Amino acid sequence: MNRVALVTGLSGQDGSYLAEFLLERDYDVHGLVPYGRRELCDPRCQLHYGDLTDASRIAAVFNEVSPDEVYNLGAQSHVRVSFDLPVHTADVTGVGALRVLEAMRQHRDASGRSPRFYQASSSEMFGNAASPQDESTPFHPLSPYACAKVFAYWQTVNYRDAYELFASNGILFNHESPRRGEHFVTRKITRAAARIKLGLQDRLALGNLEARRDWGFAGDYVEAMWLMLQHDEADDFVIATGQTHSVRDFLEEVFGHLDLDYNDFVEIDPQFFRPIEVDALRGNSEKAQRILGWEPRVSFSELARLMTEHDLEAARAEAQGLTSETPN
Fold first, then answer.
1. CATH 3.40.50.720, the chain: domain bounds
2. Exposure string over 103-131, b if 16+ CB within 10 A, otherwise e
3. Residue 72, phi then psi, degrees to nearest 5
4. CATH of domain 185-212+243-280+299-325
5. Between 184 and 41, whose confidence is greater?
6. Which of 30-44, 90-104, 150-164 has the lowest mean pLDDT?
7. Which residue intervals of the chain bear CATH 3.90.25.10?
8. Which among 38, 42, 159 has a CA at the least distance from the CA of 98?
């Protein structure tokens, strides 16, 4: 009998990669998704419409699906947007995780079935703590998003300790892919560079080019999520590459791949700066490597190339469409 997984945020970058990973291992995959959000959803998945603000809907999905594993990936995940929508971010990203945990506890108590739970925590929780950050590094959140993630992290620990649920936190550092939303800086860069290369765009406006992040490939990181729930004991793990690069470094990789100089096209726009900036994040995933046997595979340069080639193909299709629409 196939194992059953319930994934919140199935229609996002991580959810889509995780669904593919689980389907390859013969899981029955169910997803909680907002109505109408199906762009990245694998047709083999069973979708349940709802969101993390609706406790009764979450409970109903648990009773219907009776999952073996639960992956809470759903969130308002854009840090800059969280400053404009702090209450919404707290409700979805923070209290939303609590709603899932409580639905799981009630389902366990009513049915006798106890799923394993993964919470998508974030390196943003560390703020400007000294690098490298690991599982023992104190949190110092510097955004409403990070504050909400800290709340969700400690609720996960509390439900593990107080209610004896198998509940693990994955503290994931930045992870990107061609499926990354276009409002995130890496995808914004690769999409703009490809369009500039083909003459579809002239300029790219960005904020802080000196911010440094530990960037990995989302497809690698979903394996770590799964490995956490296969481990004998619930625990918390940092997932990272251990290397840090600046936004400027990413620009150089992407534009260089297209034989362009980013200095000719990039302009700084103050509206894209955060009210409080996290200067640098670099993770130490030694614990995950030692206990889970997990290691990142895709390098920073490979990631930039992968994303750039994807957006170059999309730009070519866009250019072809414009050409075909031009009257003779």
1. 4-177+216-239
2. bbbebbeeeeebbbbbbbbbbbbbbebeb
3. -95, 95
4. 3.90.25.10
5. 184
6. 30-44
7. 185-212+243-280+299-325
8. 159
Q: Is 122 in the active site?
A: yes
Confidence (pTM) = 0.92
Rounded to 10°, the helix 300-325/247-257 angle is: 50
145 catalytic per annotation: yes
Task: Tell me which of 11, 16, 121, 122 is the catalytic residue.
Answer: 122
Whose structure tokens read 């500039």? 196
Q: What is the pLDDT of residues 214-229, one digit of tens each?
A: 999 999 999 999 999 9
The residue type at 98: L
| Cα–Cα dist 154/307, whole Å | 34
Strand partners for 268: 206
Classified by CATH at the fold level, domain 4-177+216-239 comes out as Rossmann fold (3.40.50)
Burial of 11 (0-12, 13-18, 19+ CB in 10 A): buried
Q: Of the residues 27, 118, 145, 262, which is catalytic? A: 145
- 3-class SS of residue 72: strand
Q: Provide the pLDDT confidence category of residue 80 given band limits of 50, 70 and 90.
A: confident
The tens digit of pLDDT for each residue in 84-123 reads 999 999 999 999 999 999 999 999 999 999 999 999 999 9
Spot the catalytic one: 16, 17, 27, 124: 124
Token representation of residue 285: 């995933």
Q: Per residue in 252-275, pLDDT tens?
A: 999 999 999 999 999 999 888 888
Contacts 24+ apart (CB under 8 A), 263-269: 265/192, 265/193, 265/196, 265/202, 265/203, 265/204, 266/203, 266/204, 266/205, 266/206, 266/209, 267/203, 267/204, 267/205, 267/206, 268/205, 268/206, 268/207, 268/209, 269/205, 269/206, 269/207
Render pLDDT for 176-211 as a digit per residue (tens, 0 to 9): 999 999 989 999 999 999 999 999 999 999 999 999
